[in-house]
Amino acid sequence: MEAFKLDKTEHAALEQEIDRLIQSGDTAFSVFMVDIGDVGKIFVKSGYAASRKVFAEIEKSLQNLCREQDRLCRVGDNTFCLLFPGVHKSGHIILAAEKIGRTHSQAVERFDPSLGSMLRIGIVSDVEDEEDAATLIHKASVALESARKTEQPYEVFSQTLALRLAENWHLQEELAQAIDEGSLELYFQPKFEIATRRPCGAEALLRWNSENHGPVSPGVFVPLATEIGLMQELTRFVFTTGIRSAAEWPNTGTRLGLAVNMEATALQHAETVDMLSNAMSIWGGDNFDLTVEVTEGTLVTDCDSNFERLNTLRSAGIGISIDDFGTGYSSLSYFRNIPATELKIDQSFTSNMLESERDRRLVEAIIWLAHQFGMKVVAEGVQHSAEIKLLTALKCDVIQGFYFSETLPHDKFCEWLSRYRTR
């Protein structure tokens, strides 16, 4: 797409109008920063001409929304700044944001009804002492950035929002340093084979204890790694550390399995397959097998290329597990082609199956279906003996959960595993 050139005259006129309102004491107005994220998506899908056509239609729609006293200024490739004098109360702001959203959605749907809305709006309406136009436009931009990160249609600026966003940026910097220094840690959740009641391996779980924020959930720092472009470095750390650790596990007399989660972005990276093959050739041994866990969302995203990469992993002797089955984009169609060796039943099903007949039947059906396609079944989140008894009756293969052990750091897991050497 062509580089956008800012119309400095138009932008200056917008700032002058905001400053005029402030200086006159009329602070009953709001500034909207509107990002048309769909245009980039349309550009990728249908090309430059189509994206420019939709953009022009959205721009015209925004112009038609503006009253005589309002101002509209393009400030980026796909971003507009709007000034709405007289619009400052919460209800009016929400109505204006929703009206912009509807206008935008109609324009996009006329082009392609299958496209979801990616419109994001940042809003500022409270003018503090000694603030000028540049400060307010900056605040609206901060609110817009928050809307992008939270995937909300719009966000209204507040100090709380600004602090949260700043903390997020600080967390990004600290995470980048932690990945670079290798200061994250892998823990291991034991897995038990029901038939033998013995350990059959473990799932590697990444942990980060931030110096400034304490323990940070993977649900927070894994998306952050994607945002800052370090997902591949994080993936490399997890797999190489996990494989090196598994090579040091004590011999229990049976071949163990190491399971490691893989994000969709990592699977789609050109380096991933070679990285795993090389790591296994260096540290892999005769005492364990490697299984890559992927979610259903990964399977239905760029399905053909992902299946091709999974087939390559299988050819290299690496197992494939469908993680959290039934909680995402469940589709039986991919069962015909996916080279999976294992299916994991999410804890949301196993934790309720003793009380809920529906959940019990779902678990039973999932186990039966997986076995029909030659997959082993792992039940997650097992915490009670009654759950083990039922899963045994339903012919589940492997169980995982706090009933046997909490997640353990590598040295503690090796100590725990050593107890099964002579059993």
The tally of strands reads 15
Strand order of the largest sheet: 6-7-9-10-11-12-13-14
Strand content: 15-25%
Please bin the fraction of helical residues.
Answer: 40-55%
CA distance, first residue to last residue: 65 Å
Sequence stretches where pLDDT stays below 50 over 5 or more residues:
1-6
Outline of the structure:
This protein has 16 helices and 15 strands. With 423 residues, it is an alpha/beta fold.
Description of the molecule:
The structure is a single chain. With 423 residues, the protein is α/β, with parallel strands linked by helices. The protein has 16 helices and 15 strands. The protein has helices at 8-23, 38-46, 48-65, 90-111, 133-150, 159-181, 218-227, 231-247, 264-267, 272-283, 296-300, 303-315, 347-350, 357-372, 385-393, 410-418, and strands spanning 29-36, 71-76, 79-85, 119-124, 154-156, 185-193, 198-210, 214-216, 256-261, 288-295, 319-325, 342-345, 376-379, 398-400, 408-409. The strands form 2 sheets. It has an 8-stranded mixed β-barrel with strand order 6-7-9-10-11-12-13-14, surrounded by 5 helices. A 5-stranded mixed sheet has the order 2-3-1-4-5, sandwiched between helices. Helix 5 links the parallel strand 4 (119-124) and strand 5. Helix 2 runs antiparallel to helix 3 (48-65). The longest helix is centred in the middle third of the chain and has 23 residues, at 159-181. It is elongated and about 80 Å long. The model is unreliable at 1-6 (pLDDT under 50).
